[in-house]
Amino acid sequence: MKPLKISIIFGKNNKYRFNAHSSFIIWLILLMLFPVLAIVKEDILPKYFFWDANTIYAFMKSGSDFAHGDSFSSTAAFYNLFSVDRYSFIFPLISSLIIVYLFVIALKRSMAKEITLLEVGMYLFYLMLSVIYMTLLSKDFIVLLVIAPFLFLAKKGIKGLLLWSILAMAYGYFYRSYWFIFVCQFWMMYMAFGIVKKPWQVVCVVLVFLLLLAIAFHVGLGVDIDRFRTIINDMRIETQDANAKTNTMITSYIPGGGDNYQLA
Fold first, then answer.
1. Is the alpha carbon torsion for 152, 153, 154, 157 positive or negative?
2. What does the alpha-carbon distance between residue 45 and residue 100 come to, in Å, rounded to a whole number?
3. pLDDT digits 0-9 by tens, 81-140
4. Which residues are within 8 A (CB) of 22 and not within 5 positions of it... i.e. 6 or more apart?
5. What is the sign, positive or negative, of the torsion defined by CA atoms of 227, 48, 139, 78?
6. I need a surface site. Which of 12, 88, 109, 146 has the fewest CB within 10 A?
7. CA distances for 259 relative to 217, 224, 235, angstroms
8. Which of 16-25, 34-43, 177-186, 237-246 has the lowest mean pLDDT?
9. Looking at per-residue confidence, does 217 or 137 come out higher?
10. Which residues contact 36 (CB under 8 A, 6 or more apart)?
11. Half-sphere exposure of 232 toward its Cβ, with a 13 Å CA cutoff?
């Protein structure tokens, strides 16, 4: 695969473009830093980055098994299945290489011929976040393993998408039940976009499906979609040890939901 050429833009008309060789060296050096970050992250980042990993490790030590709708128990069972050690450098190294590879594939699939310095910075920022959170004992890495096959199966047409849907629903069964809603919505939008062509129609279809998603959450789960994460937050806080710190980094800055927003 040819390296994506990096361009630095000065003003509107001044542009410096690295040649293919220089771009390859720059990409190689930058991407090699991420496996290193994966290994040393717990030595340089605050402890609250690793609350979920510690919780999952506690489930692993208790011998938790795969369970319907229990994301922590099923995550622990997944890592126990592969004998992953919480404090070994092997899993962070292997998982970081998988993440970097998938990011490179995604960049290749973009069909871009060059990339600006700002775009490189954004790309590396998201790669850094992925390496920090997904090279731990995390649910996010399992989600990545579910999403990644979509890049390859989507080219197989309906058969590939059906196979991916089965994988996504298996994840939903053991980890996140609301993934069944997302899979259904994916197929509804897939069929709709086969008919809808104009940009304004696409916007309308997306808004309609978002409304349907909100209704599905309200009817199926009995909560407003904008309060779903907050409710999970509250349950975690209420069920933890009284002397422990809040084991979540997710907070709500914009109030929403509640009786004023209930659907009729």
1. positive
2. 20
3. 999 988 889 999 999 999 999 998 888 888 777 778 888 889 999 999 999 989 999 888
4. 6
5. negative
6. 12
7. 15, 10, 19
8. 237-246
9. 137
10. none
11. 13
